UniProtKB/TrEMBL annotation:
GO biological process: N-acetylglucosamine catabolic process
Family, per entry: Belongs to the metallo-dependent hydrolases superfamily. NagA family.
GO-annotated molecular function: metal ion binding; N-acetylglucosamine-6-phosphate deacetylase activity
Name of the molecule in the record: N-acetylglucosamine 6-phosphate deacetylase
UniProt-annotated binding residues for Zn(2+): E132, H198, H219
Positions that bind substrate: A143, N222, A223, R230, H254, L309, A310, G311
Active site (UniProt): D276
One Pfam family, short name: Amidohydro_1
Superkingdom assignment: Bacteria
Cross-referenced InterPro entries: Amidohydro-rel, GlcNAc_6-P_deAcase, Metal-dep_hydrolase_composite, Metal_Hydrolase
UniProt KW keywords: Carbohydrate metabolism, Hydrolase, Metal-binding
Cofactor(s), names only, from the UniProt record: a divalent metal cation
Database matches in NCBIfam families: nagA
């Protein structure tokens, strides 16, 4: 065993997959880490005593629209990405996908370029990009601007394929109504993570899209065709396919706890947490702009003037707390949904999601949702 430099004691350890009760986390020379039992803890090394809770790798969030008072859509540049990175890393997010909500082709191209430059400048935590639209269904637009929603054309596809050549992870949310199975296959073959969302498609169309290469569903239950007795819709298709992943906004507002519980019972390990965070994350602002409209913050909700939900006022630690307290999810599974769960969707995880290699360690209090960044 390599020389142990420091040991965290007094807290359980979650390695990204499993919870180790009564364990300690050892930091070894060279930067590696190891979960040890109390009996294996050596004498003579530095000991950091924690008061309960759990040590876990940093969270991974695949749907981050803004933070620090800024929206990626409103200023798709490196400065905004730095602000978002600072805001979310302070809440325990080690890696994230900056997410562009439906916008113009020019804004989309600028967003891709900004992420490429941000990674070249080593802005912490940026794993690629998530393009949520504009190839969605107007019928299930949610807070997306209907005037900007449109079918995918050859230029759109070329931009996405070009982004996949430059970035380790490119995720796109599309609706089967506005993209073809051939386009989905072309993206999937190029390594793009194709996710279905903001769609009113029927079950059969969704299954065809999965067969063509889509392998994820964006914010399960929200902005999609629901599961009925004779029309299973996108929700039913997602739950029927064990090979599909699904993001979940666990704020207790977007999805009823009973629905979350049913999805988790149906899908096993395939459901992961997302924040769907907006400009409010890491800030005290009470409103912000999105595509020329105002989004208001009040009582844990973000809404347009007509009451439409517009993203979430949510941090990942709070989502873990909601899963445990409102849904009854065990701590082991709830933390996996914020760490190794989203990493399983990525093309390149860059060491995140597991405690041995994550560049961030957290001390979490699952009862309160509070998170402290240890390193």
């Amino acid at each position: 065993m390599s020389e142990i430099l420091k040991v965290f004691t007094g807290a359980d350890v979650h390695d990204g997959y499993r919870l180790h009760k009564g364990a300690v986390l050892a930091l070894l020379r060279g930067g590696s880490r190891q979960v040890l039992s109390l009996q294996e803890m050596p004498e003579g090394c530095e000991k950091v005593a924690l008061s309960g809770g759990v040590v876990t790798p940093g969270f991974v969030d695949l749907q981050v629209n803004g933070g620090g008072g800024m929206m990626f859509n409103e200023a798709p540049d490196v400065a905004t990405l730095r602000r978002m990175s600072e805001a979310h890393r302070a809440t325990g997010v080690a890696g994230f996908l900056p997410t562009l909500i439906t916008d113009t082709p020019e804004c989309t191209a600028a967003a891709v370029e900004a992420v490429v430059h941000a990674r070249a400048e080593n802005v912490p935590g940026i794993l690629g990009i998530h393009l949520e639209g504009p190839h969605l269904s107007v019928a299930r637009k949610g807070a997306h601007d209907a005037a900007l929603i449109r079918p995918m054309d050859d230029a759109d596809l070329a931009l996405i394929l070009g982004a996949a050549r430059q970035l380790p992870n490119v995720m796109v949310t599309v609706a089967p109504e506005t993209v073809s199975c051939a386009q989905i296959s072309a993206m999937a073959e190029a390594g793009v993570i194709v996710s279905l969302g903001h769609s009113d498609a029927d079950y059969e169309s969704c299954i065809a899209a999965f067969d063509a290469g889509a392998r994820c569903v964006t914010h399960l239950f929200n902005a999609m065709s629901q599961m009925g007795n004779r029309a299973p819709g996108l929700v039913g298709a997602a739950l029927a396919r064990a090979d599909m992943h699904a993001g979940l906004i666990a704020d207790g507002i977007h999805v009823h706890p009973a629905s979350m519980g049913n999805a988790l019972a149906a899908k096993g390990a395939g459901v992961f947490l997302v924040s769907d965070a907006m400009a409010t994350a890491g800030s005290e602002i009470e409103s912000f702009a999105l595509n020329g409209r105002t989004v208001f913050r009040a009582e844990g909700r973000l809404t347009l003037s007509d009451g439409t939900l517009a993203g979430a006022d949510l941090e990942m630690g709070r989502a873990v707390q909601v899963l445990m307290q409102s849904v009854g999810v065990p701590l082991e599974r709830a933390l996996a949904m914020a760490t190794s769960g989203p990493v399983a969707v990525l093309r390149k995880a860059e060491g995140l999601g597991k405690i041995e290699t994550s560049d961030m360690l957290l001390h979490c209090d699952p009862e309160s949702g509070a998170v402290q960044v240890l390193s």
